[in-house]
Amino acid sequence: MRRRVSPWQVAAVAVLVVLTVLYLFPFYWMVVTALKPLVEFYRFPPTLLPVHATVEPFLSVLFARGYLVLLRNSLVACLTAVATGMVVAMLIAYPVTRFPVPLAFRRGLMNWILSLRFLPPIVVVIPFFDIVRKLGLYDSLLSLVLLYTVFSLPLATWMLRGFLLEVPMEIEEAALVDGAGRFYAFFKILLPQLAPALLATGVITFSLAWSEFMFAFILSATPRSQTFPIGVASLVTQFEIIWNEMAAVGTIAAVVPILLLLFARRYVLVALTFGAVREKA
Amino acid sequence: MRHWTPYLLVAPPVLVLASLVIYPLLYNVSLSLRNYRTGEFVGLHNFARALDDPQFFASLRATAVYVSGTLVIEVVGGLALALLVHRTIRSGWARTLVYLLFLIPMVTPPIAAGVIARLIYTPTYGVLNVLLERVGLIRTDILWLSEPLTAMFAVISVDVWQWMPFVFLVCFAGLQAVPIDTAEAARVDGAGGWRLFRHIEYPYLRSLLLLVMVFRFTDTFRVFDHVQVLTGGGPGATTEFLSLYLYLIAFKFFNLSYAAALSLFVLFVTSVAFSVLSRYLGREVSE
């Protein structure tokens, strides 16, 4: 039954193999560099595997350089922003999908939220910097949390809207007919149904906030509010680069969203295209 | 009473959101009309200044090269790859593997991609030079990040590496909507690869391609992160794209007013791109 293999199939497999190498090797190289003592990094030619593998660069970065604090800042800022963002997104997505509001209102609102996705950060950060400084909020996590919340909203609102549309209205209506209040129907019936969807939304918006660089770069000055990506950048741009430590922070920064999103993989493409692509390829 | 519930729910978050977004934008307009140091109203002076600022035009040119370069490579490459894989790879697990492989670069923080690119392109110890020397393609190190052309290539390559997969995945998902019977029938009727694409597959991809291009255009137009750590705008100012130039004006020279004026230009270009998208989608998507 096996069909003859066409030259195009051979080409496709060849291209995919090359791409696999192009995509996995750079990651591999970063991780391997992070596991090498510095003398090995300078050895020529470089070795594909560390000769004396060590986790010293990771420990040195996290403890000696105190990057643990930056990790904590990132976690606090991102988790707060995600939690606030989800509540706000639900407050918008729920009425828009569950109440008979006029089409123009629904479209206008959702479109406006979508437009925030395209708002260039540099346009926001210039006035924000001035405002934040006058309010005495420069170099504080609060200003980052506010911005991360705003910038997580387009994705969160659109994702929740998509998920809400998939849950049949009848389930809640049945409860409403039975005399339950809106609150009861929402918290006891709708939310449990949405639990996996909420988790996916949280994971994806968290990863976006985790990767954010420009706002933190401009609005923070000390470890009081610097996030992890700022730590990464300062190791990359310093005068004499400590290569294995730079690779170690790069690895930590990349591993977090990659692991999270492999977990929420089914929703990533749907989320990034705002529902234009319905299911995973 | 019931009638108002949805509006009551929506109102607080929208008001807070609007104040967090619209107030800074108005603030930006006000900044742009003043002299930042004295606070004095100067009318359109900051906008006029842009017109004879050679650095602004240099940055605009660099951004144009970057945006068009990445956009062409990502769209053509991603689309071609999607067609190739769609027409030849049938096995389900192979497709899942491709999906997972291409998800990874998209979710990698740009700053980490910058680290990776540093490890690849750096002179003497960069792995790319070592590989090229090994294969015998070059004799002496290429200083990737210190020559204008290769530096531009390096920053573009990072974007392509991260986002060509996005174009691929979207196109690939779009191709799944093409009915197999129609494609088969066309093939039996003797339609070649190009005509199959032009008449059968392209109609299913048209709106997705527009969407992808608007996303990629607006994102590359405001690029900052990986360029900042990879070249910092250099060598000279050859990769000093708009966001980096604005950063320089606002936060190194502390002329927030001039930066605000230029940022309104960035906002304007992005808004035009978005309005194209929303108008088109408004027509396409019926709710």
TrEMBL record, chain A:
This chain's protein is named: Carbohydrate ABC transporter permease
Q: Which Gene3D superfamilies match?
A: MetI-like (1.10.3720.10)
Entry keyword Transmembrane helix: yes
Q: Which Pfam families match?
A: BPD_transp_1 (PF00528)
UniProt keywords (A-Z) are:
Cell membrane, Membrane, Transmembrane, Transmembrane helix, Transport
- UniProt membrane topology term: Multi-pass membrane protein
Annotated TM spans: 7-29, 49-68, 75-97, 109-129, 141-160, 197-220, 241-264
CDD domains per UniProt: TM_PBP2
Species of origin? Candidatus Segetimicrobium genomatis
Q: Does the keyword ATP-binding apply?
A: no
- Please give the GO cellular component terms listed in this UniProt entry: plasma membrane
Tell me which PANTHER family the record gives.
INNER MEMBRANE ABC TRANSPORTER PERMEASE PROTEIN YCJP, MALTOSE TRANSPORT SYSTEM PERMEASE-RELATED
Instruction: Report the record's Gene Ontology biological process terms.
Output: transmembrane transport
Give start and end of each ABC transmembrane type-1 domain: 71-264
| Localization (cell) | Cell membrane
Record's family?
Belongs to the binding-protein-dependent transport system permease family.
